[in-house]
Design a protein that fits this description.
6 helices, flat, 188 residues, mainly alpha, disordered N terminus
């Protein structure tokens, strides 16, 4: 049985808080975002760590000027992705307690996508740099183009077309025919 105080609390939630029914979804959404960061962050950390150590190796001085510029672009993209992936955790700590969870999640999601963009670039540039050093520049560019296409398709185009297709499908009127409710009525 719900008291009048409980009813009022769920109707008029303070600014930044969700009504009771949506609070569980909000918490699950935040947990999903944190789990996604836990997957992305170690890759960015590892790549950045290797890139930090590379100039201090004796063989680094022997690479050509173009490869040094590719290295710099790779390092800056990797560092940018690392900063963007860690930003939501630092911001969450500084902003505690969160006044506006929905806004925080929207900003954090945008930072994660920007981080993924820079990670995409750093992976492609890294592939180009390594393959060019081992096999040659032309092969390095070809392999980098293959990886760029793969990342573009799997990380960006596929999810966006999936989302667009499902958004368009949900805006269509229900198709005529047998509905789940009709089947349940017949079973009774």
């Amino acid at each position: 049985m719900m008291t009048s105080q409980q009813g009022k609390a769920s109707v008029a939630a303070p600014a930044g808080e969700l009504p009771a029914g949506l609070a569980g979804h909000d918490e699950a959404d935040m947990t999903e975002m944190l789990n996604e960061l836990r997957i992305l962050l170690p890759g960015a950390q590892l790549l950045t760590g290797f890139l930090i150590a590379l100039p201090f190796n004796s063989g680094f001085q022997g690479i050509v000027r173009l490869e040094k510029w590719i290295f710099m672009a790779t390092f800056l993209c990797s560092l940018s992705s690392l900063i963007l992936f860690t930003a939501p955790a630092v911001q969450h700590r500084v902003l505690r307690p969160l006044d506006d969870r929905m806004r925080f999640k929207n900003v954090a999601s945008k930072q994660m996508l920007a981080g993924a963009f820079f990670l995409s670039l750093s992976l492609v540039l890294c592939a180009s740099l390594v393959i060019a050093e081992v096999v040659g520049h032309l092969v390095g560019l070809g392999v980098a183009a293959i990886f760029a296409s793969l990342i573009l398709m799997l990380w960006w185009l596929y999810p966006w077309t999936w989302k667009k297709r499902h958004t368009n499908a949900s805006s269509l009127p229900p198709s005529p025919g047998v509905r789940f409710d009709d089947i349940r009525k017949e079973e009774r």
